[in-house]
């Protein structure tokens, strides 16, 4: 195999990702970004610079570029025009409303606003105290990912600050669902290295999710008490979200570890984590500290993978079944998207049931 073939990206066209909802910041991060609590705030999604601003009570997302002379709106301010909130450009004071239209040009108060003086407005919603953006809603067949027990009053919720890794979102997803690395990257933290092998699992596609289950060996020794070890049930919403429900061995309670990644660009991803657990009397910082310990073990390994993009020439074995199916689905979505809404919807929503663990 030539070097060119070995390092050929598995996903040569990633424009299909524009049809999905992606997290861009937590609500707390947005509100901290500006003393007003309403923005503006600059973020990057799929290589595009965006501005977020809360206008008239709702967060809107638009290109971070004034239509006049291309200044970044994210270093502007929230202002008023005609009693309505506007996003004001820092350069010449042009003001944009929640519909994206320019409402005021201070240098020409008596002249009509040019019809083209308008920003594109992207789908933007707040869910799970996270701000989500969808760049292309023309297919309208994607939803904000599943997160179990978010509204359950019997559960305690932690929404962690996001963190950035120098890798692509696909590799971060695979890291979180890769069973075989536990014995080597997390010995004594999450795993007993004596149990380096593990059984194959059934991997199903169900309504836009990749679903599978795993039960690590109960005989493992040397695992710290704070490690959330138990029987694992994964519900992974395409393209990057993972809802891991753990039935803890120590007391039978339920523990949800949820993560997702934002593809900032072709080399970087912003990662999010929510922890939901039955009330255990422990302070939140204990759970956060343990997860940060695990992430600190993972990060240098994942950032060492090169090239950053998943390569078609990488060798897979039987125990890579989850990532094999994940990569296969991404490739199908990439190839389906250019062929229209129905083809893309079928690639995303058609269920595929695995009838053998081999």
TrEMBL record:
UniProt xrefs under InterPro entries: Cholesterol_7-desaturase, Rieske_2Fe-2S, Rieske_2Fe-2S_sf, VanA_C_cat
EC code(s) of this entry: 1.14.13.179
PROSITE patterns: RIESKE
MF terms in GO: 2 iron, 2 sulfur cluster binding; demethylase activity; metal ion binding; methyltransferase activity; oxidoreductase activity
GO process terms (BP): alkaloid catabolic process; methylation
Keyword Iron annotated: yes
Enzyme class label: oxidoreductase
Keyword field: 2Fe-2S, Alkaloid metabolism, Iron, Iron-sulfur, Metal-binding, Methyltransferase, NAD, Oxidoreductase, Transferase
Every Rieske domain range: 21-133
SUPFAM superfamilies registered for this protein in UniProt: Bet v1-like, ISP domain
Oxidoreductase recorded as keyword: yes
PANTHER family, alphabetized: 3-KETOSTEROID-9-ALPHA-MONOOXYGENASE, OXYGENASE COMPONENT, IRON-SULFUR DOMAIN CONTAINING PROTEIN
Protein name from the UniProt record: Methylxanthine N3-demethylase NdmB
Record organism: Paraburkholderia caffeinitolerans
